[in-house]
Amino acid sequence: MLERITLTFAQSLDGKIAALSGQSRYISESGSLLLNQQMRKDYDAILVGIGTLLADNPLLTCRLDECRSPIRVILDSSLRIPLDSQIVQTASQVKTCLFYSRTSPASGGEDVQKKIAALERQAIALYGVEAGKEGGLDLKQVLNALDELKVRSLMVEGGSAVLTSFVKENLWDDMAVVTVPKIIGAGIPAFGNIGIHALTDILVPRTEKISQINDEICWHLINPSRKSTIMSRKLYFTAPKTVEIRTEPVPLAGKKLFTSRLMGISPGTEKQIYLGNFQHGKRANPAIDCMEGNFSYPFSYGYINVLENNAGARFFGFLPHAEHFVMDEDNLFPLKDDLDDDAALFLPLMETAVSIIHDSRPRLGDRVLIVGGGVVGTLVSRALGQFMGMENLVYDTNAAREQWYPNGGFCANRQLLENHEFDLCIEASGSAQGLQTCLDCCPLEGRVIAASWYGEKDISLNLGGGFHWKRLELISSQVSNMARAMGSRWDKKRRLEYSAGLLKKIHTADLLTHRFPFSEAGNACKLLENNTVFRGLIALTPGS
Questions:
Q1: Cα dist. 540→30, 47, 373, 421 in Å?
Q2: Would 219 disulfide with which of 177, 334, 364, 532, CB 3.0-4.6 Å?
Q3: Is 266 within a domain?
Q4: pLDDT tens digits, one per residue of 122-162
């Protein structure tokens, strides 16, 4: 059965979702219409009844940039859908399923068969199901068919007959209701007769959240008989150099509950997020940014989280700083018993190091300069040390980091680099000066790997002097996707498995320099502001 069914509608101040004619299209204002579009991108399918389709002729697509439209589901017992409707005309572009009644008198005869054939020619997927007990369609058969199509989340937009049926059969998990300051008077309410005859039997959804968009009120409600919630703490970035821990309900929407065991604050990428060095309002790319939505305050962020399920099995997740998550296990990386929580925190950073080395294409015997001796630069150095003949020198202006190199291979004096010859230069400093050092130290026809993320900072480089005549190869490294040169056999899963294997061989305990209870996450983040503090990875301990 589906994991989440959300009923959503806009209503007037006097509780009407449409005029007596059935028209409902212009009840909502721009704010709630945008909310509706944002919701559509999070669901696998969107469902309406034939009444809504005949009244409004909707398109039922997600019109946000780079948004995949959900599957469109139409309930139409008697096959009244017009062939010239927007839904039919665009069915070849957006997957569309139409459910009709096999037992309805209107479903037999030659005309109906012609209608079915015409709809199938337009790429409509038709499903004949039994009629419901009180008319309409058997919703459980509809949901079973959607389940077979791998639909896990369904957004039900009405109209009244459809909303009433879902509520009456208790086939809903939550509601998103927008109330607009308009009065319709005689009109169509969201719900008809749901079988309640006494006030003692009324349905009382649990209020999860109330928000306001301009002059519209948005109610987020939970079905108490189908879904329970837990309260969980979550870290939000609310302004540059400002974070806030909020306690909010987490609906247990049929998926598995995971509890955080340990979180990590990256001293590189997350520092740029904390300082506000990003494009405000930019739409996040989940594959790269490990978050949904936009970079607009307040937002949650993070990508280092060690979790466990109710059975005690441990996983790693590219997830923000929060104590609980409800999600599919397939989205997590399982951890073996021989990798403890502290070491597992370094999994994404080691994966970054592996990606940098892959993009660098080192050759046996290469002399490698690594500019930037932070956590990632150190992991690159230690990983290269696993290969015979891979000499490497780490340069960093922070001399305190030399303690991470007890066997040498560290330099804090720029002038001393002139005494060395390098075949490959890797920049992992996060500074323009570090990248300039790589360009200056790289030899004729050498390779420079730019591994840092600079956020939205403007950087300045001197490309005069030897840069032009040395014919340098400048390569950007990105951990979120795999270079084509790696071939089809290297994928995300394999790289994570390989990184986990390296973490069993490479010492990382000294790179975990600070540990804070989750309640003191603000103080932990303040360490990112101070460049004089010797810091590596910062751990946050949940439940404290």
A1: 40, 42, 23, 41
A2: 177
A3: no
A4: 999 999 999 887 778 999 999 999 999 989 889 999 889 99
